[in-house]
Amino acid sequence: MGGMFKEQDWFEYLEPTMRDLVEEAYYLLDREEMGAEELVDYSFVVFPMAKAYEGFVKKFLHNIGLISEKTYLSKHFRIGRSLNPSLPAKYRNGWWLFDDLQRMCEKTDDAEYKKFPRLMWKAWREGRNMIFHYFAGRERLVSLEEARKLVDGFREVMEMSVKCRVMLKSPKD
């Protein structure tokens, strides 16, 4: 399975543990697609990729200068809070980064990258928050087809991130 992504820039950008999680997500997808039984919920297939994505986003934000080494290593830094474009103003502090990322992306000439902060947030919200939280009366069960779309969605955002990180400069520049 490791050769599946070998030498792709986005995969090489990942830390070894993140690579293992990506490979595990695709292994689970392949295994479940070949399985004879149909399960009620395939959220478990998405989880390794969501975990890898969380680590990836933290590394990415650190590498483009939006968070310090201390924040990158912090147990208190939350991706969901930092990338949420709708976070109420009273919760926006130094770790709310959506606006900083938006300003950085607006400097690029490519319209696709101007949408990048919202794509990062959408992948996080749909592939992690909406999957792994339980809301009474609004349970979300994930089909195998949807699990593949979510895993592939994380991969696509990571690919895009690695391609665009060279265009992004710190908002202080």
TrEMBL record:
<protein>
    <submittedName>
        <fullName>Uncharacterized protein</fullName>
    </submittedName>
</protein>
